[in-house]
């Protein structure tokens, strides 16, 4: 992987690793909790998470 920062050296990922990035454009890079903070993660460690949010009135109508 190569960054736009000349101070950082390019590096590669192993076949079983991935690099995750924060999608919140309002965050500065130093505030994002992604692979820039904790490094690559193992693909085997990725799970599924579903989050659903709705109004209280919607739930009471079910």
TrEMBL record:
It comes from the Eukaryota. This is (rape) hypothetical protein. It comes from Brassica napus.
């Amino acid at each position: 992987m190569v960054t736009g920062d000349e101070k950082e050296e390019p590096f590669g990922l192993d076949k079983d690793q991935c690099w995750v990035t924060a999608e919140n454009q309002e965050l500065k890079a130093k505030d994002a909790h992604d692979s820039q903070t904790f490094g690559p993660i193992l693909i085997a460690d990725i799970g599924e998470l579903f989050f659903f949010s709705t109004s209280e009135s919607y739930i009471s109508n079910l």
